[in-house]
From TrEMBL:
Entry keyword Iron-sulfur: no
Protein name: Cell division ATP-binding protein FtsE
SUPFAM superfamilies hit by this protein: P-loop containing nucleoside triphosphate hydrolases
Subunit-level organization: Homodimer. Forms a membrane-associated complex with FtsX.
Name of the coding gene: ftsE
Membrane topology: Peripheral membrane protein
UniProt entry keywords in alphabetical sequence: ATP-binding, Cell cycle, Cell division, Cell membrane, Membrane, Nucleotide-binding
Localisation per UniProt entry: Cell inner membrane; Cell membrane
Family: Belongs to the ABC transporter superfamily.
Signal peptide limits: none
Source species of the chain: Hypericibacter terrae
Length: 226
């Protein structure tokens, strides 16, 4: 599903932010991505979401070598990836409902089905009474839940979430974790960057531990290459 071998990443001509990164993520697994601030977690998520390219090494996604992709291949690959950005990136002129419905509308799902699924999911994340709200009228935690609902609604093959419980209380954080667990059990590969140590301790999943741009030995070996 995701395979990195000796990958390095830099922004333009800057220094290498990630170095010597090798790991594989199998379908239907959930991994936490942990490490101190500035370690390169968001950069790794940007690479995996195809927003950055490796400056060295090999990166393959869904069985395809990313270096060999043509520009026209990217939209179809990206549609298989759900991303929860640290800064949410909701469309401010669309309601919560319409933001979440977007991936389904792009996939030509029937409106009756969209209504049912989006309503159920927003209900599950505790926003059943905010369907018509515009993002600027929602709190940070509410916007974050809309962003998560939008990222998971179309059951992506790969879900990348940057600090997805950063703005919510413990009860909601648990709910969101249950949602991510549902998803990986259905076959999605889930990667969650987080500083929330109690969440990582409570849910015994694999961990990728980044430190200073490298995978640290504390990375659980199930995620690293043999
Ligand atoms: N767009 C960019 N251009 C240049 N350097 C960047 C850019 N984005 C991040 N960096 C640098 O890359 C390094 C890693 O940043 P990154 O945001 O990936 O870390 P992080 O582990 O996600 O941190 P945090 O936990 O604080 O979100 C930092 O030194 C940062 O300054």
């Amino acid at each position: 599903m995701v395979l990195l071998e000796q990958v390095a990443v830099r922004y333009s001509d800057g220094p290498e932010i990630l170095r010597d990164i090798s790991f594989a993520l199998a379908p239907g697994t959930l991994h936490f991505l942990v490490g101190p601030s500035g370690a390169g977690k968001s950069t790794l998520l940007r690479l995996l979401s195809l927003a950055l390219k490796p400056s060295e090494g090999r990166f393959s996604l869904f069985g395809r070598d990313v270096a060999g992709l043509e520009r026209r291949d990217l939209p179809a690959m990206r549609r298989r990836i759900g991303v929860v950005f640290q800064e949410f990136r909701l469309l401010e002129h669309l309601t919560a409902f319409d933001n979440v419905a977007l991936p389904l509308r792009l996939a030509n799902v029937r409106e009756a089905e969209i209504k049912k699924h989006v309503g159920e999911l927003l209900d599950w994340v505790g926003l059943g009474d905010k369907l018509e709200a515009l993002p600027p009228t929602l709190s940070g935690g509410q916007q974050q839940r809309v962003a998560i609902a939008r990222a998971v609604i179309a059951r992506p093959s790969l879900l990348l979430a940057d600090e997805p419980t950063g703005n919510v209380d413990d009860r909601i954080a648990l709910r969101l974790m249950y949602l991510f667990e549902e998803l990986y059990k259905l076959g999605t590969t889930v990667l969650i960057a987080t500083h929330n140590e109690s969440l990582v301790a409570r849910f015994p999943h694999h961990q990728l531990h980044l430190e200073g741009g490298r995978l640290a030995p504390r990375t659980r070996l199930s995620a690293a290459l043999p």
